[in-house]
Amino acid sequence: MALYRETPLPSVSSLTTEDPVLLVQLSDSHLFADANGALLGLKTAHSLQQVVDLACAEQPRPDLLLATGDLAQDGSVEAYQHFRRLTTPLSATARWIPGNHDQLAHMREAAVQSRLLEPVVDIGNWRITLLDSAVPHSTPGYLEDRQLQLLAQSLSEAPERHHLVCLHHHPVSVGCPWLEPIGLRNANEFWKVLDRYPQVRAVLWGHVHQAFDQQRNGVRLLASPSTCIQFAPGSEDFNVSNEAPGYRWLRLQPDGSLETGVSRLADFEFEPDYSAGNY
Predict the structure, then answer these.
(1) For residue 23, which of 67, 64, 68 has the smallest C-alpha distance?
(2) CB 254 within 8 A of CB 56
(3) What average pLDDT values come out for the chain (279 residues) when binned by 10 residues?
(4) CA Rg, the chain, in Å?
(5) Span 24-276: which CATH code?
(6) Cα–Cα distance between 49 and 87 in angstroms, integer?
(7) Which distant-in-sequence residues (6+ apart) come within 8 Å of 269 by Cβ?
(8) Structure confidence by residue, pLDDT tens digits, 95-149
(9) Could you state, in order of their start, the residue ranges of all structural domains in the chain?
(10) How far apart are CA 57 and CA 41, in angstroms?
(11) What is the pTM of this model?
(12) Which of these, 28, 133, 204, 215, could form a disulfide with 70 (CB 3.0-4.6 Å)?
């Protein structure tokens, strides 16, 4: 029996295998039930709205929106409803995965009668697999056996497609010592699966609130800014940078190559209020 479906996987769009695919990634929005809720003094719904406006202006017709975890800070149904409403202007098919601040049951409630939480997407000449690395009541991530099996099945069933794999937690070091203990705890098991499949082109994640772009055995490794506060790259301890909120875009080409970039808000000023103590 299939691990994640019982019927053939339909495509989410009318794109052919000869068409490029435009993705927009939004990550770590940390929304609250209160639309005016703030994280370290930054109103997260307001900054998400600004980032969505920027993405709409720069990427007017994305094919797919990927929300890679920590959509909510308080895990409330209302926060996920805010996220759905605020991202509607992108007019794109969307998929969500949970992060360590999310509450999966409430995500499911907010995603009712939608395909937002389906973990596998065929689009253009690509397959995108979205994994749940969140562990209840835990900041670090872990991929349960069922998730690793889903990954292996998704990869093995579509050898003719190029593959992008998404999760919330970082499976490699991003160069911030304080983030090392709160990444993906079983990264070795994750890579053991991926290394068996040469059609994997890229791995994409959130969680680290900063841009990251490296290669591992020919696989592109990408992390992205938050739509709210940013973590200072290379920091020894928890530290918020003065970089602006932003998003990542990816253009997946039919031949398996990809183009990607990060875009941030202009004229953004924010002084973190560490006394709030609510991260």
Answers:
(1) 64
(2) no
(3) 41 82 98 96 97 96 97 98 97 96 97 95 97 96 98 98 98 97 98 98 98 97 98 94 96 98 94 79
(4) 17
(5) 3.60.21.10
(6) 8
(7) none
(8) 999 999 999 999 999 999 899 999 999 999 999 999 999 999 999 999 999 999 9
(9) 24-276
(10) 27
(11) 0.94
(12) 28
Report phi then psi at 94, rounded to 5: -130, 150
SS (H, E, C) the chain: CCCCCCCCCCECCCCCCCCCEEEEEECCCCECCCCCCEECCEEHHHHHHHHHHHHHHHCCCCCEEEEECCCECCCCHHHHHHHHHHHHHHCCEEEEECCCCCCHHHHHHHCCCCCCCCCEEEECCEEEEECCCCCCCCCCECCCHHHHHHHHHHHHHCCCCEEEEECCCCCCCCCCHHHHHHCECCHHHHHHHHCCCCCEEEEEECCCCCCEEEEECCEEEEECCCCCCCECCCCCCCCECCCCCEEEEEEECCCCCEEEEEEECCCCCCCCCHHHCCC
Place of tokens 């349960």: 144
Rounded to whole angstroms, how far apart are CA atoms 191 and 180?
Answer: 17
Query: Which two structure tokens, joined as six digits, stand for 36?
Result: 């005016």
